[in-house]
Amino acid sequence: MAVGVDHVFYLVADLEAGRQRMETLGFIATPRGTHSENLGTQNYCFMFQTDYIELLAVRHSTPLNAPFRTFLEDGDGLATVALRTQDAPADHHSLKAAGVSMCDPVEYSRPVPSQPGISAGVARFTSAWVAASETPGCHMFLCQHHTPHLLWPPDPPRHSNGALGLAALYLIVPEPDAEGIARTYHRLLQPLQAAQGSADHPQPPPAPAPAPDTAPHPPSE
């Protein structure tokens, strides 16, 4: 089951300018990441103890990043909420069974350079996007981390602005639409048993058990 917010991502047309703005606000960025060719995106992350902010930009056009390019036509902005799951295909099935329109699960990866507390490797994920019609004003997807130890360092950075994590998310809508939109989100989140009105942070995904020396390394995309 999905257990809360994993991260949010903020889409920008200029990734380096976006990083500089975030650093001016007192956040510490990870090294720049480059996603697989089918995603065609690159990012910086700003890690907390259990969640994070992702700054995302399009590197080259692909069918999978078409919604991002459409979003950016209206300028930079907070675009998407990722819900943490330990089993994206299972939660995808549960939501579809509840009548929620979903895209098929997608696997992707990105290289992670060596940094304090983290060895170089290939971070792997499975995501399952909720159809845009289900979430007015925001995109949502299920996010399963297969290699969380490559994202969360043992000691997360101490941001100079004092930020510790994502306490809550707010969607601002015209008052006449609020009740209907609330029902729409409840229809999505209720099958996942998402807690409402709680500021508790979910725990980060558990690190996988060490693989034997004979195990093959995941391919880099």
UniProtKB/TrEMBL annotation:
Residues 5-187 form the Glyoxalase-like domain. Residues 202-221 have a biased composition (Pro residues). Transmembrane segments: none annotated. Residues 192-221 are annotated as: Disordered. It holds the Pfam family Glyoxalase_3. Signal peptide: none annotated. This is Glyoxalase-like domain-containing protein. It comes from Eutreptiella gymnastica.
